[in-house]
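In the current project phase, the collection of sequences with tokenised folds has grown. A representative record is quoted in full directly below:
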Amino acid sequence: MYANFVICLRAVLPVFMMILIGMGVKKIGWLTTEEVKKFNKFTFNMFFPPMMFRNVWESDMSKGMSWGFVFFCVFTIVATALISSLVFRRIEKDPRTVAVMVQASFRSNFVLMGLPIVTNLFGQARMGEIAAVLVVVVPVFNVAAVVVLETFRGGTIDIRSILKGVLTNPIIDGTIAGFLFVALHIPLHPMLRGVINDMADVASPLALIILGASISFQSVRAEKRQLVITVLTRLLIVPAVWTAIAVPLGIRGIHFATLTVMLCGPAAVSSFTMAQAMDCDGELAGNTVVFTSALSVGTIVLWLFFYKNLGMF
């Protein structure tokens, strides 16, 4: 039991240490808010495509993809969005606040925090087994978020804009490029491979530091009840429900660990940006990101430890 706890702690703790470094960098004034935004965009567009490409290129693809698992991941996202919409509309009057609560219930920081944790648990060589999850889940997160926020604020949904955002997403582009190179057996020159590896190595550490630098504490006096409900839903209720359903379905190993991290991870940082941009409750969205990020260091370890002891992965 102790060994399992150490394994889970070693997988999660380095991720949060990087976030703490980012918070420290912002605190001492090495980065301004505007610089953080620029670095975030730069990191996402420059380093994430090589990282996603490598995840596929260097993985053992002989084991193939479990498309049933991919479908289940998508189902959990869509079902959570629908159910939480029905529930939160009954307990909260302001539709712009409801939109933020619903978005937080299904949209976790899976790429920035979940992927490094799964890599720490299983190693780089097995990341190809969950590459298809990223290709599908990332656009589903984004599309569902736009639909929820637009619906509750009374806006219209721009299908063309959504499709453009999906097709130009660096995470998706890098993953698809990796699949193409593997499927077509395109060789990589050692020098080019070295450049890709160097850029990929930068992606997660830099992104986590920038994530930490982007976190800022705001007043929570006005919306304590809504914040507590949203945080509990994101970190405890959603993972408890769906992992309990996944167990009898026979989901195990790296798939179960990936599902767990996706479900119990903190709210996505971009959910705050989108809430502000789409005239929803930006303050609640920001506080949700902060508190779920801070508390998830404990809850993620506990969820992984619990299921590791049960032999789920």
Summary: The mean pLDDT is 89.
